[in-house]
Amino acid sequence: MGNHRADHRSPARAVVDTTPSGAARPVGGRRKATRRQSQANPFRKIPAVPTIVGAVAIVAAAGGALGVGGGELQAGQNLALSSGAADSFSGTDAFNFSGADARSVAISRDSSRQALEDAANKQTEAAVEEVAQQRNSELQSLAGLAQKRADQIAKNLWVLPTVGYHLTARFGQSSGLWSRNHTGLDFAAPSGTPIYAIANGVITSTGYDGAYGNKTVETLADGTEIWYCHQSEIGVTVGQKVVQSTQIGRVGSSGNVTGPHVHIEVRPGGGDPVDPYPAFIYHGVTP
Q1: Closest by alpha carbon to 273, among 148, 200, 171, 193?
Q2: Across 26-35, 95-104, 114-123, 227-236, which has the greatest mean pLDDT?
Q3: What is the pLDDT of residues 224-259, one digit of tens each?
Q4: d(Cα 252, Cα 212) in Å, to the nearest integer?
Q5: Does the domain at residues 166-282 carry the CATH identifier 3.40.50.720?
Q6: Which of 57, 78, 111, 233 has the greatest number of CB atoms lying within 10 Å of its CB?
Q7: Strands 261-267 and 241-242
Q8: From residue 256, how far is each of 38, 39, 73 by CA, in Å?
Q9: Domain residues of the chain, as ranges?
Q10: Do 185 and 273 touch, CB atoms closer than 8 A?
Q11: Which residues partner with 187 through β-bridges?
Q12: Is 85 left (phi over 0), alpha (psi -120 to 50) or beta?
């Protein structure tokens, strides 16, 4: 059965009789089992197809490289490009930049960056300097305006008309001493005590005026009139310019009085009198 299968699989194969010529065959017609000798394979020494294809690809790549570079492979040397169409691979990095060139590029890049930074710093300094100069100019302008305003305020500041005084009569009070309500503020002080101009102005009137006694009228820059009444002595003349704190007379008892004092009236625009007390407060002084 086994021999039949073998014969069926390979009908073309010939059975080789290895029994020596003239030797007696085994009894019973059975054949003696023998080992078949394998025939030599004629294709055994031929390389496999993938191996051949790989070799051909390597040869083609080498040939293409030589063709592109225009060079040739010389005995005893490595593969090199001789035409100058491409740089030598010796001493270059993966991007075909030599070490010296890379350092030069890095140094140039750093120098450019430093130059840009220096230019930016100079521009910033110039801008800061310009802003500082503009700010200083504005501050100087503001300082000038502030000084001007301070001067104006100082000119408009008032001072008290005398010293060592006490208030005896206020604005609006009524008494049999006056024909109508009191029109000013009375600063009582010893006779002869100096009387001072309470603000800057011009003397526009001096002389005796009935119940007011010896009276001096000072007109301020805004047209307000200040009346100084009941003086014992007048120390200024009409047309004279005075500044605050200038002595213009002395406390007395001239006119309709009960004792020495200086009667102060404030008349805006030369019109009817107003309460002097808040006017003093407004101009920076408290009687």
Answers
A1: 171
A2: 227-236
A3: 999 999 999 999 999 999 999 999 999 999 999 999
A4: 11
A5: no
A6: 233
A7: unpaired
A8: 168, 168, 139
A9: 88-156, 166-282
A10: no
A11: 167, 262
A12: alpha
In angstroms, the CA 105 to CA 258 distance is: 106
Q: Could you please report the per-residue DSSP string of 157-191?
A: ----S-SS-EEEE-TT---TTSSSS--SEEEE--T
The identity of residue 10, as a single letter, is S
Spatial contact of 230 and 268, defined as CB atoms under 8 Å apart: no
pLDDT of 7 over the 50 cut: no
pTM for this entry: 0.51
- For 117, the token pair is 């930074």
- What count of residues does the chain have? 287
Q: Are 206 and 236 in contact (CB under 8 A)?
A: yes
Task: Judge whether 230 and 254 are in contact, CB under 8 Å.
Answer: yes
Residues 6+ apart with CB under 8 A from 129: none
